[in-house]
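New to this. Help decode the following:
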Amino acid sequence: MSKPSIPSGTRDFSPAVVRKRQYIFNILRNIFELYGFQPLETPAMENLVTLTGKYGEEGDRLIFKILNNGLHTITKESEKEKLATEWEKVLSKAYSSPTVTERALRYDLTIPFARYVVMNQNDLAFPFRRYQMQPVWRADRPQAGRYREFWQCDADVVGSTSLMNEAELLCIYQAAFYELKVPVTIKVNSRKLLAALAELCGMPEKMMDITIALDKLDKIGWDGVTKELTERGISETGISQIQNIINVTGDNDAKLNQLEALMTNSPAGLEGIKELRTSLSYYGSLAKTEWTGSIDVDISLARGLNYYTGVIVEVVCDSEKVRMGSIGGGGRYDDLTGLFGLKGLSGVGVSFGIDRIYDVMEQLGVFPDQVATGTKAILLNFGGANEEYALQILKQLRDAGIATELYPDSSKFDKQMKYANKRGVTFVLLPGDEEREKGLISVKNFSTGEQKMVSVADCIHMLQ
């Protein structure tokens, strides 16, 4: 029998990992609720027509299509053919025949959210603020920080054009990464500036080609972007114009002033600059002084998804210890629900890359020590009357809200201690003969090696 395995690009999560991930989710959930967002969940699979054509050419290629069930129906039509041959036929038609694949695993949470809003528009109070934490799937090549199955965590506001929403989402990013102890830079740009950039190149019809190439700047560098722009038909003069614009320097005000001077004759560009200024002004009114992340206007920021129309955002980790792509991103989409027949409903949202954030936090070592174990203390089991005494203490500790477990068997002392050590708990409680007779409990701190006999009340106070 072959060894069991899991599909490439997927992972099992151990109890310790799950607890750390829940730590991230809980922090984000509390922040979303603080900002008035409501929870939402959608199905793992959507109708294929719901997803295709929404993510651009490259995104569509990464959608996981699901073969229709009922292969037996096909085989009945030609019972003499082998099943393997049937599968070959099915697979050959899988990407072209709607009778073979009509559904797909969700690629992100935004398009399903738009579909949900359209289907439930009469029951929702607009503006509708929702957050969503669920897995998504992409048929990508697995590599460090990139998986085929991974979790996203989104926050969106739909039904409002106010740029105050952009500012609040920037605040959510700042609050979250400050609490998670991850140093970040939050890059902001506008798709309207990218449209203006295409106009300045004299090739407004090439806006998406320019965007797709610029979106790879961090990965392939300017030389790589230049090569791709050339392959996509951008002239040498146009490429030079792009380079001049993305190389503007200074603080955000200085950058916006320089861009304004360069885009004087572009209504779209001036509108994008105005939106960025307004968003940053709102943010300045809401931001807390202790937040450590920087907000950086970056004209090279592209975000490769077709549906963004205004301000766009991306988050990267600042630490030199970490080599990782974006760990969050989003932007304004003026007519996303129009894809499903509901016109004129503007929205804006951001996404947290949970798996990448987890990897970054592991590399930085910023998870609290207790998060991975859950259990705060383990009671050893010495059997007989001592076991009865341990059960009484167990109840008192749990009644006090302290996560505690009692080793279920009166095994050898060394075996129980090894178990406690392997579980990674800080405190081991020893309810032996002397402790039971005196109504006390011995507490051993694995971190310091210290052991002392205390009252149950003092033990509870110590563990709390």
Notes: The domain at 15-41+107-364 is CATH 3.30.930.10 (BirA Bifunctional Protein; domain 2). Confidence is low (pLDDT under 50) at residues 74-81. The longest strand covers residues 128-137.
